[in-house]
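Curious: why this fold?
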Amino acid sequence: MPGKYAISPNEARLMDTETLRHHFLFDNLLQQGACNMVYTHYDRMVIGGALPTTQAVELLLIDDLKAGYFLERREIGIINVGGPGVVTANDHQYNMEKLDCLYLGKGTKNVTFKSSNNIQPALYFLLSCPAHQIMPNTLMTREQATPAHMGDSETSNKRTIYKYIHDDGIASCQLVMGLTLLQPGSVWNTMPAHTHDRRMEAYFYFDVQPGQGVFHLMGLPNQTRHLVINNNQAVVSPPWSIHAGCGTSNYSFIWGMAGENKAFTDMDAVAIADLQ
């Protein structure tokens, strides 16, 4: 399993584009017939993707974890952004449509990912972090999540937020996870920007249309940088960094966090006038 080490803001401000992309971008998570994982040193988060086609793919034990099985000391959040599929865990099957979320707690064994058909395969985005207590495995469909409508077309950020794994949703040890859908004509996310020094965050951009892209903003508020993101790519955001984006068209993204707490509102806002 490849890894990404934690980077300080002093290092990041000196990086060129290639170096920034090496340390913060995940550009090859979804490969046909595989489950790919990357270990980060940001709150020990593992970021991954599974794309089963004709056969199911398994969440395999990785030697780097020094465990008996993948979720022996971990929890995982799974969101499907493709066609219908089935996740099997502890011999229980969970049918997942697009934008459904499944939480699997510490101690869950024998996890496999399957697509219901090969024409439109399921695309599973995965986030896993250490867990110190057992929480129940839970499936939440898009219809069961309570959407929050935010933003305005006048500021190009009209969007719908679905919160899945959080204090008032699916219970977890420390994982927080959800997604945001930008409406047609809106391109900005998370602006005004913020940081939260108590936890890291990861973004996974999806439904970026062919020929379009997203400029992901990162860095200290007074030392901003950007990464150009394509469809089905992810980025890790250190606790000291802002995380926002602007697309050439509307798009969607999954967000996930781990760290000191699970409060969705725990953020330190940065005024647009203070960004540099």
Q: What stands out?
A: The longest helix spans residues 17-24.
